[in-house]
């Protein structure tokens, strides 16, 4: 009988929880380590639509990229999130697990997956910050840096990114005719790494949630910046988690159903 703790074990091999950022809340969010698991639903966020779908499908476990909670809640109200998700989890015996910054930072994790989708050959982590429990690993850390097989003008690369990520809109900073060879990426919100990008030697930085003054700094240095949005850089985590967990389960000779929750959309509407 497979239990919640066994799924945590598989995920710890895929993306070790001890490399998660200190502020993060990866791991078990709600549930019980000894509950049996036969069906797993995977999504980006622990949302009410996801929990309702998991309940309808009789899921035993929900796996997401973004945690149910990062900051502590002062009260748990079952009539609103995140309390509603906890209420459903308790009533239907659905464990909730999140793999957040550990998946971002892990080798062959989300940043590597994102980079490969847009044609970047990664050479290492953009920012290596090993924890005390791991040796320094150039392929484990925040973001990735790499190169394109051949130089391309920013305006052409932008169109390729939109096509490969199936995005209708991007925010771009820089000379659209500038040649791009070396690229840094950081899935999610990467504005705090602008200084690291400016001294990295990379021509272009691809991330999400960029602020006005961060874009101005990139412009002043005659570099390029592409903001694909937080959702645009991370919704693919659902496919990544499903593929890696399904492979681990099959290699272990287990029979567990996995279903992707694909009804999530970017909360921002451009009008």
UniProtKB/TrEMBL annotation:
Keyword field contains Magnesium: no
Binding positions for a divalent metal cation per the UniProt entry: 65-66, 104, 230, 234
Keywords: Metal-binding
An example Gene Ontology molecular-function term: metal ion binding
The organism's place on the tree of life at top rank: Bacteria
Keyword set includes Chloroplast: no
Pfam families: DUF34_NIF3 (PF01784)
PANTHER family given in the database record: GTP CYCLOHYDROLASE 1 TYPE 2 HOMOLOG, NGG1 INTERACTING FACTOR 3
Protein name (database record): GTP cyclohydrolase 1 type 2 homolog
Organism (species): Desulfobacula toluolica (strain DSM 7467 / Tol2)
